Amino acid sequence: MRRASPKQFQATVSALDWHLIDKAIDADWAEGIGDARMLLGVAYALPSARPVIEAMVARNEGRIVTLSTHLAALASQTATRHVRAGKRIAIAYSGHVDWDLGALILARFARSDPELIPALVEPHFAGFADALSQPSPTFYNEALLFLRLFAQVVPEGMRRVLDHIDVGRATHGLRNALRGQKNNRVPGAKAQARQVAALLVHHASDREDEVGLLARQLRQEFPRHSVPQAKTIEAIDVSEPIEL
Question: What is the pTM of this model?
């Protein structure tokens, strides 16, 4: 509707009763807000709805145990206060990593609240490693931007993640990523996965453990593809405000 009939979209969103929506979410504020996240995400496309949504999320901060990446992206000030209070944003959860929104959130913290980055990422090192240890390179397809920024703004972050890598499983995923095999047909997926694998090899090659040994083996097997492109390791500018 937003694209096909912008005026109707604006009228529909403007007519929403946010107090009823707040009441309907109720106990779901604690974890993820359920299906309401789709409604809030769509409505947020209307600039006039954004302050209302942000205020609604802020009113419920005390009820939120784990803040979803969707809510953190919509309400950046709530995200800051949530992390400052020692609570988690669900970048990694239940075997899944939200690499895309995670990159947005990490970039915002890097720009505005860099002192909170350790608290933001500390709960997730093992979760990141679990995703990067999967035997299928499809788990790497959306990770490149996040990992580039993560390596830039989190001192020792890549080392901490590599500490948790399961070499037995990761070997298959890394090899297939570097080969460009066992991936889906989404345009650019193979190239993204290959750069993620090359970045991991780059950061692991000096380690004196099984992860380091695997990295050096992969560098020998794939001397060209295991070296990240210059863009993959160059700094990302986070000085400008980042909006959805």
Answer: 0.92
Give 52-110 pLDDT, tens digit per residue. 999 999 999 999 999 999 999 999 999 999 999 999 999 999 889 999 999 999 999 99
Query: Of the candidates 90, 114, 134, which is a domain's last residue?
Result: 90
**Residue 133 pLDDT greater than 70, yes or no:** yes
Domain count, the chain: 2
How far is Cα 85 from Cα 119, in angstroms, rounded to an integer? 10
Q: pLDDT at residue 170 above 90?
A: yes
How far from 153 is each of 36, 106, 195, CA to CA, in Å?
Answer: 32, 9, 19
Q: Are 212 and 205 in contact (CB under 8 A)?
A: yes
Domain that holds residue 229: 124-236
Do 180 and 194 touch, CB atoms closer than 8 A?
yes
- Do 156 and 54 share a structural domain? no
Rounded to the nearest angstrom, the gap between the alpha carbon of residue 55 and the centroid of all alpha carbons in its chain is 24
State whether 73 and 176 are in the same domain: no
Provide the mean pLDDT of the chain.
Answer: 94
CA distance 158 to 147: 8
Q: What is the DSSP letter of 227?
A: S
Q: Same structural domain for residues 163 and 82?
A: no
Domain boundary (46, 67, 90) is at 90
* pLDDT at residue 4, as a whole number: 65
Q: How many CA atoms lie within 13 A of 239 on its CB side?
A: 2
